[in-house]
Amino acid sequence: MLTNRQIIRIEWGDCDPAGIVYFPRYFEFFDACTRALFEQAGFFKRDMLKTYGIAGIPVVDLKTRFIVPSRFGDDVTVVSSVAKWGDSSFVVRHRLMKGEAMAIECFETRVWVAHPDGDPEEFEARSIPEEVKRKFGVVEPQREE
Amino acid sequence: MLTNRQIIRIEWGDCDPAGIVYFPRYFEFFDACTRALFEQAGFFKRDMLKTYGIAGIPVVDLKTRFIVPSRFGDDVTVVSSVAKWGDSSFVVRHRLMKGEAMAIECFETRVWVAHPDGDPEEFEARSIPEEVKRKFGVVEPQREE
Amino acid sequence: MLTNRQIIRIEWGDCDPAGIVYFPRYFEFFDACTRALFEQAGFFKRDMLKTYGIAGIPVVDLKTRFIVPSRFGDDVTVVSSVAKWGDSSFVVRHRLMKGEAMAIECFETRVWVAHPDGDPEEFEARSIPEEVKRKFGVVEPQREE
Amino acid sequence: MLTNRQIIRIEWGDCDPAGIVYFPRYFEFFDACTRALFEQAGFFKRDMLKTYGIAGIPVVDLKTRFIVPSRFGDDVTVVSSVAKWGDSSFVVRHRLMKGEAMAIECFETRVWVAHPDGDPEEFEARSIPEEVKRKFGVVEPQREE
Q: What is the pLDDT of residue C134?
C-alpha cells in the first residue's frame, strides 16, 4: 500500500497563544500530505486536474482525534495512505507522529469531482479512473463478464 | 439552550483555485463561533482564561460533514450551541447554513485544560466549573446529600 | 472620498505564542477591507470580475508600518480608502485604529488585471474603467478635445 | 554573510480563486524563512526566547514588491539574509526566486523585544546581544575607549 511520510516543522505562526498548534493548521498540513501522496503515486495535482478534467478532490467528511499537542519548533512526521477506495470517493488516513507516538489521527473522505457542462460554479461526483487506483496499488477486482 | 448565530462573509482569500472555501478555513470560522457562543454566555475569552486559571479549551475530537460548498461573496450563517457537557469536556455543534440548507455540520469536542504547576508546556484536563455550565442554561442535577 | 470602516474582532487563532496578532493575518484583514471598500462603491467582487472581464486586483506593492500590537479579544477598526488612482493601478491605504491611535498603516498597490486571450495562467494589466473610479468619487480630469 | 535558501512548494491551499498565491501566505513563508535563517546561525527559536529572555522578534515594518505570481505546484526558492543590523532592530531581506527570476522582494524590519517586568501584555525593545550578531557574521566595530 502506497504510503507517504512527510516531516513537518511546526512554525511559530502555526501556533496560538497557548503555544500549541492552532488546530485548523493541521488540516492545511494534511491537505498538503494528500497532495504529496498523490504525487508519490505519479499524479502532480496541476496536471491531474487537466488530464482527468476534474475540478478537484474536495473533502466531504472529516474525522479527527487530537491526542497530543505540538509546539513551535517541533518536527513531526505525517504518515498518509488511502484507507479505502469507493467509486467516486476515497478515504485518506493521516497519522501525525511525534516520535513513536501517534499525536493525531485524521480520516479525510474526498470526492473526485468535475464541473458539469464546464460550469465553474457546479460540482458533480465522477467515477475515479481505475488507472488512478492502480497507481496506488489497488488490485482491480476480478469481474465476471 | 443557548445558541449563537453568526453571519460570515466568505472572502476571496478563504477560497481555493476551485473558487470554493478551502476547508481548513471553516475551522477558523467555527473556532470564532465557539468564542462568540461563550461570549454570549458571558465569558470573554481573555478574562475567562484568567478567572478560571485555564490555558484554553483545545479541540480533542472533530467530526465534520461538508454537504454544500460555499464561494467567495456568499454570506453564510453559523448556528452554534453546546450539544453535550461532560465533566472536563464538552461538545459544540456548529451548523453552517446557506439559507435553509445545512451546508456543513461540525461537532467539536473541547477540553477545559490548565497548565499543571504553572508549567506552560504541560496541559491537564480540569473539571468545568458548574457556574460555567449554568450560564449556558444547564440545569444542575439534583444531588442527594 | 469614499472611506470604509470595518470593525474587526481579533480572534485567538489570529494570534501567535506571544499572544499578539501573527502579522500575515493583518493582510487577510486588509484584503477583506479592500473588498468591503469596493462593495461600498457598488462593486460586489464576484460580479465585478464578470462585468469587467478581469481576473482580480492582485497586490503588487505593499508598505506597512506596525506601530502597536493587538491581542485576541481586541476590537479594532480598519479605515480604508483609495489614496491614489493610476491608469491600471491604484493604492489603497488602510489604517488600523485602536481607539484614537493608529496601530498599523498599510499602503497596498493593486493592479487591474485580465487573462490575455482567456489563458487562465497569464495575467495582463488593463486600464481601470472610468466608471469604476467615478464610483469612488474620482472627478474625471477635464480633457481638451 | 549568512544566507538561507529554502525551497517551498506552493500548495493548493496557498492559492486563491485566480489560481495564484493569496499574498498574505507569502508572509507566512517569509516568517518561516527568517526562523530558518536564525536556525542556520545556531539559534533555535524556542531556545533563543529562553536564553535571551525575549518575547519574540516581531515585524515593525514591511516593504514588499510582488513581481511575478506563483501558482500551486510551483517550487520556489526563498533566499534570506540580514541586510542591516541596528541596536535593537534588524532588516531581513527575502528574495523569492522562480528559477533565475526574482518574483518577490521583501524587506522585514524586526525588533528584539522583551516583556518589561515580566508583564506578558507589554513589549519593550532591547539591544540585540553582540553574540547574536556575530553568529550572523557581523564584525564588531572597533570602539575607542
A: 95
